[in-house]
Design brief:
alpha+beta, Jelly Rolls, 35% strand, three-stranded antiparallel sheet, five-stranded antiparallel sheet, 159 residues
């Protein structure tokens, strides 16, 4: 049995805070070949998850907020926001599922945020994600300002 405890979430959040990317995964699947990829994803404010989609092969992806506050965003092919939702167990808005072939990203709005993430497998780093050509590359000069632009455009507050 796999248990998800406060101790595990605290440990993972501490690792995310000390990571240069401000996020950290804890995988429950045992192999990249598993047909269902399951993981915890601890995300701190300021982490940039470049907008992407999963197609060829098509994959669905779901996020459940275990702790903290996250914003899941969908975009059209031009990079315009088409939908978003704030996930938070405290707000009783627990999760969101992204259909295959939809551009999306996640923004952490609160320190200590952790999502349970589920995605179709298998995982192959060569074809897992198609990054949006209209979005800055992670770690590039424009990534932080793009993230701040999204936060401002959606009227979000980060704590």
């Amino acid at each position: 049995m796999i248990r998800i405890t406060d101790d595990l979430l605290n440990e993972l959040s501490a690792k995310a805070r000390s990571s240069p990317r401000l996020r950290m995964n804890h995988n429950f699947h045992t192999s990249p070949d598993d047909k269902l990829q399951r993981m915890l994803n601890a995300m701190e404010p300021g982490t940039y998850i470049r907008p992407h989609k999963h197609e060829n092969p098509d994959k669905r992806e779901a996020f459940l907020a275990l702790r903290g506050t996250l914003c899941v965003i969908e975009f059209n092919d031009l990079g315009e926001i088409t939908d978003h939702t704030i996930l938070s167990a405290n707000r009783r808005n627990y999760g969101a599922e992204i259909a295959e072939r939809n551009w999306h990203s996640v923004i952490s709005l609160e320190s200590g945020s952790v999502a349970y993430e589920v995605k179709d497998g298998p995982y192959n780093p060569l074809d897992d994600k198609d990054f949006a050509p209209w979005s800055p590359v992670e770690g590039s000069e424009g990534a932080e300002s793009y993230l701040q632009q999204l936060i401002k455009q959606l009227g979000l507050s980060v704590s």
